[in-house]
Every structure is written in C-alpha cells, then in structure tokens.
Amino acid sequence: MWPERVFSINLEGPFQEIAQLFFNQGWSRLLDPITDLNAEHMREFYANALSENPHTKLFPYETFVRGRVIRFDRDAINQYLGDPFPLRPGDMDDFHIKQNMGHFTLPEPHEEIKRFILLEGCNYDVSEAGREYRAQYKALTNPAKIIQKFLLHNVMPNSHLSDCVVEVCPLIYYILKGIKVDIARTIAWEMRKVTLQGKGERETRLSFPGLIMGLIKDSGMRLPNAVHEQIRNPINDAFISRYIMEEKKREKASGHPLLEPLHHNLRTKMNQLLRHNLSHTVHRLQCNP
After folding, report:
1. From residue 222, how far is each of 63, 146, 274 by CA, in Å?
2. 123 and 197 assigned to the same domain
3. Which of the residues 30, 100, 148, 180 has an alpha carbon 20 to 30 A from that of 261?
C-alpha cells in the first residue's frame, strides 16, 4: 500500500498560515484520513473497479466491496470531503479549466508560478531536449515544500518524494495563493489512473488507502477488525520544524542547496587526488631510501 500521511498542523502554532490555507479549503477529512488500513478491502476495491465502457468510452468511477457499490467520481469524493467545493452540473473550477486549456504552459503564468514557489536564484531542471520538467525539493520555498508533501502523499500519490514534475507546480501555486481548488476532481482522476494501470499489472498499486477506507465506512459498511497497516508519523509542527526548517539551516551552513552536489563531487576528486599523490610519494621514498 501507498498510505497517505496525517497532516496535523496547529492553527495557532508557528505554521498557522499553512494550517489556515488547508482549513480554508475545507480539506479536514483529506488531512486526517482513517489510519487503520485493511489490505483485503483495498485489493477488492481496485480489483472490482469497472473499466471503461467499450461502447461509450466513459469510465464509470464505480466499484464493489463485499457486494456494496462504492462510487469514487468527483461528486462522490467531494461529498465525502464535506462538499468543500459545491458545483452545478457541468461546471468546473478555475484551476481545472486553465489546466485543460494548457494555460499553465504559457510563458507568463509558467514564469509567475516558478518565481512564486522556488527559492530566489533557483530554476526547474531542464531535460536534454531543453524542456523544463522537474522542480527539485531543495529548490522549493519552505511553504511550497509542505504543500508538495501534502499533494504527493494525499492527492497525487508518488513513490518519488524528493522532487515533483512541473505539472504539479500550478496546484502548489493555487493552494499557496489561497485560491479554492476542486481537489476532488484531481483525486478522482488519480484514482482512475491507478485503476486502469492496475488492470495490466500483476499487483495493483494500492493508493489512497485512508480515503478508500473512509468511502467504505460512509457507505454504511462496518469496517473490519483486521488491521494490516497503520498510517503513522504525522506531519505536524514538530515534523516541519525538524525536517523542513532545520534542513534549511543545514543548507545555509553548507552553501547553496543546488550547488551541494557540485561541492561533493569536487571534494571527492580532491580526496582522490590527494590519495594518489600520497601513494606516489610513499612509493618514491621506498624506492629511494
């Protein structure tokens, strides 16, 4: 399973501004998922999820667990979250409208997002083809790091957490700007991707276990007593202070974060050169006593 994380940031603590951003979005159930996970129910959820209808090409966003229908479309997830983003049928939020139009790839918004979420002097990584494709974790501002962790754990699950693709950055930007986002639409799409990918794999990647256990519980089904895994180690004020704020202090002490790999390589080469010279000197002394 790829479990989410519990985000327990004090609204009156040192990181209250970030906590307030989450609170204003209305994502309390997403920040605090069910922590007792049952692997059997998870496997059944994804194994029984219906594929795209071959006649309409529409994905039904529906599955069965213990014979009970569980829906995981945008409306079902939004309802589970407490309806934080009410919409009329056919409507869409600003973020997803612009995402579908390719707005965030245009030069002006692309640069604005980059300058807002990255540290001064930092840039996205560039591929060999010349395309900006990745934001390194060390290049993000501290608030952006917290949002990135939330997204890659609880919204767009990814096994690689040290950086994120550029496509995730507009969502970080919107959340930091305090702009309301229909996060249920993003989650529903991610669950669709997991379902379709799992159909061709020997073992389905069990993402969103806390959310799924919540959907099962809200369907009226009694959750099983068997707990195969628990979500532990919440991201709270202490975590942020130790692993994000302290990390920043260490980076300042050692130099620019993105130059550290270069410094490491230089130190390695210098050490190799010194060892070579020392070995050569010792050999000469032994040959010429």
Report:
1. 17, 34, 67
2. no
3. 148
